[in-house]
Specification:
- The protein has one domain.
- With 193 residues, the chain is mainly alpha-helical.
- Helix 4 packs parallel to helix 6, helix 5 crosses helix 6 and helix 5 crosses helix 7.
- Helix content is 72%, strand content 0%.
- This is Small multidrug efflux protein.
- It comes from Arthrobacter sunyaminii.
- Keywords: Membrane, Transmembrane, Transmembrane helix.
Length: 193
């Protein structure tokens, strides 16, 4: 028995101590965590001895539920910020400072805080968004940043909630399926467990 087979068997014995009905929920919770997401969660489930279909479905469901919560929260936040900024803009235009010589007024100048540097992952994602649109950015996004972050960025940029949820679901199903089939094939044909 090689070391990888031994490791997999030991992990399966550890997972066997958890009641059978709880295992998919554990995989679902793992799928909800950014950076673990559906791909790694399905790997945990398959290596832990779950049926690959159950493991992939639970991991994708957990990932999608977390993205759904992020989209709903980000959408409400964006709506509140846009309403607040419209109110400030209206108040600012009403509070013009009178200029010299009867000029109608000039807006008050405010200092703007310096912008934070943008991370490499976000730069790569924004380039994909411009180049491929929401579908391409959603599908390629997990290569740069977690799906939860991708969804938040898309909502913050003004993309419709339904459109974001649709393409995030497609991306989650696609990447989780690829990961689940890959780990199942590797365990079955390479490792021999």
């Amino acid at each position: 028995m090689n070391p990888i087979q031994e490791l997999v068997i030991n992990f399966q014995e550890l997972a066997a101590q958890v009641p059978e009905f709880l295992r998919p929920f554990i995989v679902m919770l793992a799928g909800a965590v950014p950076f673990i997401e559906g791909e790694v969660a399905s790997l945990i489930g398959v290596v832990g001895g779950l049926n690959p279909i159950v493991a992939g479905s639970a991991a994708a469901a957990g990932n999608f539920l977390s993205v759904l919560l992020v989209v709903l929260f980000a959408s409400r936040t964006r709506t509140a910020v846009v309403k607040h900024n419209r109110g400030r803009a209206a108040a600012r235009s009403a509070a013009l400072v009178p200029g010299p010589g009867g000029y109608g007024g000039s807006p008050m100048l405010e200092e703007t805080p310096p912008a934070k540097p943008v991370s490499k992952g976000r730069q790569r994602f924004m380039k994909w968004l411009v180049r491929f649109g929401v579908p391409g950015a959603s599908i390629l996004g997990p290569l740069a940043i977690p799906t939860q972050f991708t969804a938040a960025i898309l909502i913050a940029s003004g993309t419709a909630r339904g459109w974001v949820l649709l393409w995030q679901a497609v991306a989650i199903v696609l990447w989780t399926t690829v990961a689940t089939v890959s780990i199942w094939a590797a365990l079955t044909y390479v490792v021999g467990v």
